[in-house]
Write a structure and sequence with these properties.
By secondary structure, this protein is mostly helical. Helices cover about 35% and strands about 5% of the residues. The longest helix is centred in the middle third of the chain and has 13 residues, at about 145-160. Pfam families: CCP_MauG, Cytochrom_C. GO terms for molecular function: peroxidase activity.
């Protein structure tokens, strides 16, 4: 959308939320290799689950399930966070156990409840496919092919998954016509109610850990304990990484346990549990209207054509 000169105003630099930053320059060949690996189910024991299974790029970078489905139809322990704009997070996973996207990328491959493979078997699979061997050699300029190169490439692709130019970003950039009066009233409520204390910065979240159930206890059947599982400190129990609100309209259901099915329900619960505030129906609708302005331009992905397996490629074992 081209901003008309009559609507153009000075950028709103004093807001607690910033626009999505420009993507840094990345090696196109590495990004393309990472994209193939992101979509390749052969990195799983079943030969059926890929990174995209839980972080579906057609569905806001998540799977829209309360908890994800892993190997042998196992029920995952936690809601799958979006991969979109995830490079802006201070850490990865709800409990922050991975410091960055590269470290995160190796986790699901070897998790028995997710892709259920091992790093060694995943590398054996890739080494059995000449197309991959050649591509890794060209990208990394070495014959080495290890989990380090695999996760580096996947992380490079994931860094490209940013969603700029949302209506709210255009408003931040000075386009006074980008938001309706109802959406602006919702943003005002969002700030004045205290939501912005945790949901701030360019990703409207992802930059701190906070307790779930700050004012009122959060009742859930989930066994996820949060940050305590990383730090060992009981004070971190039920502390989770604050999720991004970017593209939140697309990433339902909400919270680490997926218990909030709709944005209306999520806003109501967050108001009561975290802020000690009961939003009226009208206030809730205005905040939801604002949240929907955070949907940016989705990545335009050309599906990769994966190199074919060979007789030496380990066979998938979907029913073990």
């Amino acid at each position: 959308m081209t901003i008309g000169t009559t609507a153009l105003a000075q950028k709103r630099a004093d807001e607690p939320v910033q626009t999505i930053p420009a993507m840094r320059n990345l090696d196109p060949a590495m990004v393309e290799l990472g994209k193939k690996l992101f979509f390749d189910p052969r990195l799983s024991k079943s030969g059926f689950i890929s990174c995209n299974s839980c972080h579906n790029l057609s569905m806001g970078g998540s799977d829209n399930l309360k908890t994800s489905i892993g190997h042998n139809w196992q029920k995952g322990p936690i809601n799958s966070p979006t991969v979109l704009n995830s490079s802006l997070n201070l850490a990865q996973f709800w409990d922050g156990r991975a410091k960055d996207l590269k470290e995160q990328a190796g986790g699901p491959i070897a998790n028995p409840g997710e892709m259920a493979f091992t790093h060694e078997l995943a590398i054996d699979t890739l080494k059995s496919i000449p197309g991959y061997v050649d591509e890794f050699k060209k990208v990394f300029r070495t014959d080495k092919l290890s989990i380090d190169e695999v996760t580096t490439a996947i992380a490079a692709f994931e860094e490209t998954l940013i969603t700029p130019n949302s209506p709210f970003d255009r408003w931040l950039d000075g386009d006074n016509r980008a938001l309706t009066s109802m959406e602006l009233e919702g943003y005002k409520l969002f700030k004045e109610s205290g939501c912005v204390a945790c949901h701030n910065g360019p990703n409207l979240g992802g930059n701190s850990f906070q307790k779930m159930g700050l004012v009122q206890p959060y009742k859930t059947a989930s066994t996820a304990a949060g940050r305590v599982e990383v730090t060992g400190k009981d004070a971190d129990r039920l502390n989770f990484k604050v999720p991004t609100l970017r593209n939140v309209e697309l990433t339902y259901p909400y919270f680490h346990d997926g218990e909030a099915a709709t944005l209306t329900q999520a806003v109501d619960l967050m108001g009561r549990l975290q802020l000690g505030r009961e939003f009226s129906k009208d206030e809730n609708a205005k905040i939801v209207a604002f949240l929907k302005t955070l949907t940016g331009q989705q990545p335009q992905i050309a599906m990769p054509i994966l190199p074919p397996s060979t007789d030496k490629t380990p066979k998938p074992r979907p029913f073990e």
